[in-house]
Please model this.
Amino acid sequence: MSDPVTVLVADDEPLIREVLAEVLEAEPGLTVVAVAADAGEAAELAELHRPAVAVLDVRMPGGGAWAAREIRRRSPATRVVAFSAYGDSGSVDEMRRAGVTTYLLKGLPNTAIVAAVRRAATG
Model:
């Protein structure tokens, strides 16, 4: 059996953080190694844990784009997935420029979120 895909979850909403972490942790082959409430904490935890994938809220305190850039700088192998309620082109473009590989809208079925995390992990 291969090593599990490690995941960092970062969102300023406690309920979303908790549910997303539970959904990912319940999946075979995925392990949530850290959960953050803001951009600074996300960057620090990414540097400490070096997850395969970081799932970031776009509009959390400190900014999702800042967190994405910092995570890419501190843990270059980590793939960054944006998870947002906002699908406007400005938000999407900003996150893409920050190194985000996938942009997911909140409200997607759990199976789509899990599949996107798995895809991000494999490049």
